[in-house]
Amino acid sequence: MDTLEILKNIGFRDKKARVYRASLELGQANAQEISKKAEVERTSVYVLLESLEKEGLLSSTMKRKTKYYIPAHPEKLVEILEGKVDLMGKFLPLFVSLYKTSDVRPKIRFYEDRESIKEIFKDTLSCREKKIKSISSARDLLELLGKDFLNHHIEKRVKAGIETISLRLEEKEPEHWYLSAKNEEVLRTTRFLPKGIFFDVVCLIYDSKVALVSSKRESFGFIVESKEFSNFIKTIYDFLWKASK
Length: 245
Fold this sequence. Notes:
Blueprint: H1 3-9, H2 14-26, E1 29-30, H3 31-38, H4 42-54, E2 58-63, E3 66-71, H5 75-101, E4 107-111, H6 114-124, E5 131-136, H7 138-145, H8 147-159, E6 163-168, E7 188-192, E8 202-206, E9 209-213, E10 221-225, H9 227-243
Parallel strand pairs: 5-6, 6-7
Antiparallel strand pairs: 1-3, 2-3, 4-10, 5-8, 8-9, 9-10
Helix pairs in contact: 1-2, 2-3, 2-4, 3-4
């Protein structure tokens, strides 16, 4: 990928990218020289140079009644981009609130392999209610995602202050692993499902979302975002919780 394509990929329009690249290549130059090098008509070059100067990517000086443009070090471009990222990060919650309320239609996202399934668990870390209700086969989960990933996920969840209310299959408890750690250490309340209930999937309920994850044999998962559906699943969950020990 050449420098012109890189500039386009970070938001520069074609002519602006050509003018900026030409100014870097020329060093100190006037509008006519930059216009010729960039192959952009001079009427457009003046406007683009003014824009680049306002952004701090160029400075200017007068010599014998002619204005010359001097490019800032390319590090300035990185500073501007980092500033935009920081600004977006600061106001991201505002945009998220718009996203959450802009459409009441349910949303379904599918994940079709082990690596993409990890995105489901990463999504739970954005839980606004700071509480996840789970029904899990711990042994199948460990087999699917691996000890390292799950340990790191639990650490991130605890750091985010997200509590988990966990219904588990006693027959499928791993003997030695983080999931067997003391509940209070990992912000977890656990009950074991009644004998006779058996399954291979994991169900995660958080905010208005329900995620289902299969075992390693099938390696798929999906998230349903729906208030009505999540309320329905929560009702079933609460019934199972009362019936468990």
